[in-house]
Amino acid sequence: MENPPLISIALCTYNGSAFLREQLDSVLAQRYTHWELVVVDDFSTDATRSILEEYAERDVRIRLHYNEQNLGYNKNFEKALGLCRSELIAICDQDDIWQREKLEKQVRLIGDHTLVYHDSEFIDAGGQSMNRRISDKLNFYRGNSPEVFLFLNCVSGHSILMKKQVLQQSLPFPERFHYDQWLAFNAACLGSIDFIPETLVRYRQHSSNNTDILALKTAARSADQKVLELEMESQWLLLCARQCTGNAHGLIQALYNQSILRNDSFFNAKFGMLVWKHRDTLLRLLKKPDTSKFFYALRKAWGVKAKK
Asked: What H or E segment, with its residue span, contains residue 129?
């Protein structure tokens, strides 16, 4: 590639010594070599810092930053992304393993898109394949309809290569919501997204994962937790309605309005009907038959009084 653009890779670490070397080795082994690795360590207490310094001594493309107190997952990524200097930004977790061609294939695809992502293979804590991919759980999406990401998300943070304008639109990250879903939503608001149907990351699953996409840690939820989830869903819809001023705004605003009515009632059929009516976008990522999508929309209609 002539005049390859610089890619800033944002890596956040926290007590990641168990898997960090494998991830760093896979970044250093990338066929695409014009990158900087921006690392922000979130006040680790294990050997993470010494590992980072060892690798930084070996490669001048690695820039290290240390927090004086623990910021937490979302805020630490927000800081790391803000320190990236390039117009192209990739996100990196501390415990995965990248395929050698990951950055090369993504930079060739991005073109006029605001964000591109890819499929990933699940591996266990020991690095063994679990014979499952993210695309086994969710349909992938390419296009410019942000409402696709209101209830579901197929864009994992570690798979993202995005334009800086997406980050600028997304900061600061909203509290209590997944930053990768927020980035995907904003990328679709600003332009179009695309994906590579290949597993370009080996996505490690273990007890310390911040997300639980395979539902390995699912536990029974109390009535209070279920009520809180309804309230948070309404807050999310309001946030998205305020953020998106394009064609999707009317639908998102209507969903928010009906969600508030649902929260104050036993059952709001209008909310469920609205989700079902727009299932081709709102439930597009759900890898289920229409009967399952119908019951998904029906469950959305139950309000706080029912949950209690």
From this structure: strand 129-133
